[in-house]
Specification:
- The chain is about 45% helix and about 10% strand.
- With about 160 residues, it is α+β, with helices and mostly antiparallel strands.
- It has one domain (about 10-155).
- The strands form two sheets. A three-stranded mixed sheet has the order 1-2-3. Strands 4-5 form a two-stranded antiparallel ribbon.
Length: about 160
């Protein structure tokens, strides 16, 4: 049994979730109270090296008639019959302008904290012919350039 499996009162919690206002703080509090520790990190955008990810998020938000909110990295996501509440939380967050990503899929740039796919996801994107940097890095190319410039300045 997963620590994010449906609790006995999941039907009531799903009803409560749907009535939680669009207020970011209320939604975060509901999620933290329901599944403590599930939310791990968040950022405002994807690294500029992955423009298709940012554009896709903005497109989904446009379809839902909402503004992009946050890219949220979570402990885990399961879409089976034992995780209906977790699935509903993900759906509601997406409908309200959030991107929900597993910790195994994305990390943050070490400098600016914008979302970067982990090496394995970068490789999948690259293999599919999507626009990605030629070499995977833990930093955005812009941030790598900033670091190189500051290194040159120190010499």
């Amino acid at each position: 049994m997963s620590k994010y499996s449906d609790p006995p009162e999941s039907k009531e919690l799903i009803s409560q979730l749907k009535s939680v206002s669009s207020n970011k703080e209320e939604l975060r509090e509901f999620v933290e109270k329901t599944f403590p520790g599930w939310l791990l990190a968040s950022t405002d955008k994807y690294c500029k090296d992955y423009p298709h990810l940012q554009q896709n998020w903005e497109h989904i938000c446009g379809m839902n008639n909402v503004q992009p909110q946050k890219i949220v990295v979570v402990d885990q996501v399961k879409f089976d019959e034992n995780h209906a509440l977790l699935r509903t939380i993900c759906d509601v967050m997406t409908q309200r302008g959030y991107v929900v990503r597993r910790k195994e899929e994305f990390t943050g740039c070490e400098v600016c904290r914008h979302a970067i796919p982990v090496r394995e996801v970068w490789q999948l994107l690259k293999d599919k012919g999507l626009p990605v940097p030629t070499v995977w890095s833990t930093n955005c190319s812009e941030c790598n350039n900033i670091e190189l410039d500051s290194e040159r300045t120190r010499l």
